[in-house]
Amino acid sequence: MASKSPQHINLNEDLDWIKLREETGSAFPETTKEKMMRKIKENPLVPIGCLATASALGFGLYNFRTGNRRMSQMMMRARIIAQGFTVAALVVGVVMTYNKKE
């Protein structure tokens, strides 16, 4: 049985990516929170639609649990409308962003 010799590690070559990162600066110029706030300011209708969808879903599930079938059904229909609004807002936002870049 032949024993394997440990590989020689050359730290100067193996850690060149650290020097590259220091020279070029940070790979992520904005934090996740900053990016989220920028996206919300660019298209505020999407978070509004998401909140409306979640609210209609929550209220509809609550009414379903309490046995109020009519209100539960109305809230599920409102959820579908809110989802459609959110998708439409996303599409409009993408089209507007695409037109800005050109």
> Strand tally, please?
0
Q: Give the ordered list of helices and strands.
A: HHHHH
Mean pLDDT metric:
84
Unreliable runs, pLDDT <50, ≥5 residues?
none
What distance separates the N and C termini? 66 Å
* DSSP helix fraction: over 70%
- The SS-based structural class is mainly alpha
Rounded radius of gyration (Å)? 26 Å
As a percent range, the share of strand residues is under 5%
Shape: elongated
Main sheet summary = none
Number of helices: 5
GO cellular component, one term: mitochondrial membrane
Pfam families: HIG_1_N
Protein name: HIG1 domain-containing protein
Keywords: Membrane, Transmembrane, Transmembrane helix
Please, could you describe this protein's structure?
The chain is mainly α. The chain has helices at residues 11-14, 16-24, 32-42, 45-66, 69-101. Helix 4 runs antiparallel to helix 5 (69-101). It is elongated, with a radius of gyration of 26 Å. The model has no long low-confidence stretch (mean pLDDT 84). InterPro entries: Hypoxia_induced_domain, RCF1. It holds the Pfam family HIG_1_N. It comes from Glossina palpalis gambiensis. The chain crosses the membrane at residues 45-64, 76-98. Its main location: mitochondrion.
